[in-house]
Amino acid sequence: MPHSLPPLPYAYNALEPYIDETTMHLHHDKHHQAYTDNLNAALAKHPEWDNKSVEEVLRSIGKVPEDIRTAVRNNGGGYVNHDMFWKIMAPQAGGAPTGKIAAAIQSAFGDFANFQAQFNDAGAKRFGSGWVWLVSNKGKLEVISTANQDSPLMDGLYPIMGNDVWEHAYYLKYQNRRPEYLKAWWNVVNWAEVSRRFEESSR
Ligand code: MN3
Questions:
Q1: Distance of CA 25 from the midpoint of ligand 1 (Å)
Q2: Domain that residue 133 falls in
Q3: pLDDT 10s digits, 77-112
Q4: Do residues 72 and 135 both lie within one domain?
């Protein structure tokens, strides 16, 4: 199998009280595992796509054979979105960013609080399942949201950070209160990794 489930980089209870242990088990061990298995199953039909990174495959989603394109879009998206998601969170994290990413956010959104408000608003308004993102659009920072597991990579955008607003990400603890989850999530944002992705986006 070309792609494997990346291990969670911290303990399942490490993001408590903001994200509960049971949610982390289900989210990583069941949901992310299923995206991984379904991606591998789809790619097995066209092994010439196996040796590319999933990011590369998504960037050229229009060239993926039609009989597996929807499966790759959904499960390849789910694979890379969650791979990023675990890494951009950490215990004893949160707070405000520093350095180049902080300056870029300030320049694009006025200040950090305004950026957070735009991000939370876009996440709350995403109807049904999806993601809210900070992306680089050829160097310009923008807040967007996508449906389902669609990755910004498919639109030529670079996902610097994103929050999962599928109900599976928050329902056990927050039930229907998605805005409360979005607000609490900032306490686990790993700015070191987000900064690294920001630097990567500008290369
Ligand atoms: Mn998810």
A1: 11
A2: 99-201
A3: 999 999 999 999 999 999 999 999 999 999 999 999
A4: no
